[in-house]
Amino acid sequence: MSTLFRRRSLAAYVYGHVLNSHKVHTSTAPLLQETGLYGFNHLKTPKGFQRFVEDAIERSNELVTFISGMPSAPEIIGAMDEISDTVCSVIDSAELCRATHPDREFVEEASEASLRINEYIHHLNTNHCLYMAVVKAEQDSHLLNEEAQRVAHHLRLDLEKAGIHLPSEQLDRANQLNMEIVQLCREFNENIINDPGHMDIFPASHIPKKLHHLARPIYRTTSGAFGGSAWSMTNMKEKGFRLPTDPNTLSSILQWVSDAEIRKTAYIQGNSAPLGNLGVLDKLIAARHEFAQSLQKFDIVSNALFWMHMQIMGHSSYADLAVHSSMASSPDIVLSFLLEMSEIVRPRADEEFKTIWNFKREKSGQLYGDLEPWDETYFTAIMKSAVYDLDSSVVASFFPLSQCLEGLKVLAESLFGVTFHHIPLAPGESWHPDVIKVALHHPDEGDLGYLYLDLKSRKNKHPVCAHFAIKGGRRLSETDYQLPIVALVCNFLGSKPASLLNHWEVETLFHEFGHALHSLLSRTDYQHFSGTRVVIDFAETPSNLFQYYAWDFRILKTFARHYSTGDVIPEDLVKSIRGAKDMFSGTELQRQIFYALIDQKLFGEEASSIRDTASIVAELKRQHTSWKHVDGTHWHTRFGHLASYGAATCMPNALLQQYGKRFVKRIRSH
Where is each Peptidase M3A/M3B catalytic domain found (predicted)? Predict the structure, then answer.
C-alpha cells in the first residue's frame, strides 16, 4: 500500500505563513528537562498518544484549509509536506513503541493511535481539493525548482494509487480495503511476536551449556525405584528445558545441538508458528489483490480551475502495483531476473548440497541417510570450522558490542568526516534502561541528527532487527533545518562476558547502521527523496553495501579486539571468516532468490486463485532450491516482509547477493 501520507517522508521546504511553531531539535536544547518518549512532550504517559493524534489531526486540518485556497505552487508543496511530517511523526513513533516498549499500556495506546491516524490518512487521500491543488502545483512547474517538481509529480501519482480518481462508491471500497490491509499487516506482525513457538526437552543434558541462557528450566514428575527395591516406587522430578523457537534461538539450536531428533523437532516447531498467520496471509493477499484491481480505467475531466484529461489504468496484481513505481518497473522484469538467477545458481547450489550430504554420511556413518533441512546449519558450521579452523566462540571474543559500536564511529568518521557523541537521555525520553542516544556531528555543519540504539534482546520485543524513523529531517526556512531522529533496533543475545556478538550479528549491525546513516546524512528539501524514502528496490542498497565493511580487515582491525587481552583480531582469522562465508555462497544466493519468488508469487496475477499458501511455498522450494520441503511447515508465516512491504523488497537482496561484492571492490579500488 503506497499512498501520499504514508510514505514515511522526510524533508521539505516550508514557506512563510505555512509554518507553525515548529521547534528545531538541537544538542543545545536543555537535554535533561523532563519530556516524553523520543523527546515528544505528549508522550509522558500512555494516554499522551491520544493527544498526539488529536493535535496532529487539528494541525493537518488547518493545512488542508490553507491548501484548499489554492495558494502558490511552492506553498502547496510545502504545506502538503508539513501534513505528511505531522502525521508520520505519530505513526512512526507508534510503530517504534509497539515494537519495543515493555509497558503493555504504552503498546496498546500506540496501537490505537496508529489505527486512528491511519483512518485519518485515508480521509486525506480521498480529498479532491488536495488532489487538484497538487495537480495545479505540477502544472505550475515553472515556479518550482527541480526537486519540488519531482515531489509534485510523485504526490500526484501517490494519490492516484490510493484511488482518488475513482467514483464515490469505488473509492469508499478502496478505503475500506486499505484499512483492512493496515489491520491485517498489524495482526501478522503481532502474531510473530506473540507466538514464536516453543519446545520442551528432557532431560536437560540434551541441551549444550552454551544454550542454557536461552532456555527456561522446567520439571516433570517421573516414577523411580527407592531403596533398591523395584517394588518400592516414589515420584521424582526430572529437569528439562523449554526453549522458544523464535528465529534467533532456532538458529542457535540448529547450529549447536548434535541430537538430530531435537534439531528436527526445533525446525518443525519453529517453522510452524505462528499458525494463525496462515489465515491472516490469505486475507491479506485477497485484500491487496482486490485493491490493486480496483484502480480501474477511469477518465477525469475538468474542474473549476483547469481542464485535464487522464487515464488511470488498473493493475493486474498487487505485485504490479507495488513494483510499478520501483526501478524494476514491472513484475515481469523481476520474475525474468529471478528465474534466470535461479537457473544460473542451481548447479553450484546442487554441488554444495552434495558436499554437505557426503560430509554428513562420513560424520554420522549413515551411508544411506537423507540430508534434511535441519541438518544444514549444523553440518555447514562444522565444515566451516574444520576447513578454516574456526571456533565461533573465539571469533565472538573479538566482538564485544561496545567495541563494535566504536568501530562504527571510526568508520563513519573516516568515510564522511562525522563523529558520534553520547547524549544523556532526558527523564521520560527512553523506553528501556538499555537504550542509549547519540548525536551525529560534522565539524562544519554541526549536529546532523540523533540516533537511539536499542540493541539487546528482551521479552516481548519484536524479534527482527530494523531501522525506525521517528522524526524526519526537513527544511523549515532558509536558515533552519529540522534534524532527523531515528532508532536502530536489534535483538542481540550477547553471550557473556562483555555482550559478545557472533560475526553474523556484527554484519547485521553494520547493515542496520547503513540504514541509519542513510537517514541521518541525507539533506534534501523535500521528504520524498530524503534518506531511506526512496524507491523501495533502492532503499536496501546503501545498507547492503555498508555491511561489507564487516568483512574488511582494514576496518575490523580498528575495533575488533579481544574482550580480555585487548589483542587485535588476527588477519588470518578474518581471512578464515571470509572464506567460510563463501563456502556455501551458492546456497545462500539460492535462498534469497527463493524468498523473492515467494513474495512475487503470492502477490502476483494468480493471487485471486490462491487457496493454500503453504503448498505454493512448498512447490517453489522444490523447484528453486536444492532442499526438500518438510510437510506441515510454513516458514513464510513469520516472514515479516510479506506484510511490511509485499512484492517489492526481496528482489534487491537477491541482486545485491550477486553483485554487491563487485560494487564494493570498485569502491575500494578508488
Answer: 311-647
